[in-house]
Amino acid sequence: MLRFTELDQSYPAKRPAKERRKDFDEIYGPFNPKAGADQAARCSQCGVPFCQSGCPLHNDIPDWLMLAAEGRMEEAWERSSATSTMPEICGRICPQDRLCEGSCVIEQSGHGAVTIGAVETHITETAWKEGWIQPIRVKRETGFSVGVVGAGPAGLAAAERLREQGHSVTIYDRHDRAGGLLIYGIPNFKLDKSVVERRTQRLQKSGVAFQLNTELGRDVSLEELRERHDAVFLAIGTYKARALTCPGAGSDGLIPALDYLTASNRRGFGETIADEARLQAKGRKVVVIGGGDTAMDCVRTAIRQGAASVTCLYRRDRENMPGSLREVTHAEEEGVVFEWLSAPLALKGDATTLSGVRVQRMGLGAPDRDGRRQPIVLEGAETDLDGDLVIAALGYEAEDVDAACGGGGPVLTPRGTVRVTERCRTSIPGVYAGGDIVRGASLVVWAIKDGQDAAATIHADLMARAESAQTRELEPAE
């Protein structure tokens, strides 16, 4: 360990931008065993592991780095999977530069962070290759049934932990494939769909049932689920796109980011897209409005679809954007043009098609409560930008939860998200919630944490219920 003074920071080989622009394959190759061990050995094994506190899951990062450096890969995988149900997924898509790697002591000292995400992926990919990851073997069935609404990262994480405890689990999801945004919202070049599918297949082989094409409020009610199961976990995510508010925003030519990404991912599955002409970037001048990771997914997808040009409008500068700076670098390498300090003033075109964006130039004012400097309008600084495919990537909000629950849903926050205790319990006994429907649109790693936390609470509550019932049975009759 502590080899950061003799070994430079190194990531797995990244495919050249000219090559990766042509397909949707993942851009990084795998670590070979020696490279993975060498990078793990750069860890300083510091007494206070800030990488661990910087990870929402509080993964035992120094421990599995040490084990990987020593070649004890199965033990490294066991330690990694003890705190995360999807380490190889987090290793691919977490913004490590803002989380564990950004907190790394070696990064702060100027030597470059340990490449934690890449080593995490390397460990679990080795586990899959070696056959260490098998279906869950339940020691004892509890007899309790749990319904999980939503097959995204929160729902899948909860299902895995609940099944490990011996509970019967059924996952309900509105889509025709399990995975939520992991399947339909994140492009293949960041997360190949086979990586997600082998996780859901493992759950199926472990006895978890999937009821797809089933939407809460349309195909099944919350009341029905409560009658069907001993506990219900709501992990329905946030799918309502934040609206762009400027003249022309009502045009059908403005494409919501999720519609665009879902069409692209379905195309990758070989499906025919009904609205193909509207949702295809080939040969078009693309403008994406937004600065988060979803915006980066959109611009990089448009490049791969053969757009004539791709421009990203963001109202702050590079240093104050919410997305991963690593993703911005990838996008720039692939040919995306960033118009920093730029906001849409109006969309040009008609009710069905758009021809461009009137752009308002911005400046930066005082920091907001998150520490990012607030954008301010520069009066008289306007310009026009051509674009016949305009995509809004402004984030997501909660859908109408109360309507989906038939008017008898849990108490909500003013934002429309589900209000929970610190233990994921809602206002309805036996109903729990986690992930984006509680936090608002957030990171996959936070959804996984919520799913695992909710599973622990549900298990504790069901076991307490069983113990209480057993106690009543043993009490003498009066």
TrEMBL record:
Pfam name, any one: Pyr_redox_2
Entry-linked Gene3D superfamilies: Alpha-helical ferredoxin, FAD/NAD(P)-binding domain
Record field: transmembrane: none
Annotated Dihydroprymidine dehydrogenase domain residues: 20-131
Chain residue ranges for the region called Disordered: 1-22
InterPro entries, A to Z: DPD_II, FAD/NAD-bd_sf, FAD/NAD-binding_dom, GltD-like, Helical_ferredxn
Boundaries of every FAD/NAD(P)-binding domain copy: 145-451
Keywords: 4Fe-4S, Iron, Iron-sulfur, Metal-binding, Oxidoreductase
NCBIfam families listed in its UniProt record: gltD_gamma_fam
Name of the protein this chain belongs to: Oxidoreductase
Organism from which the protein derives: Glycocaulis albus
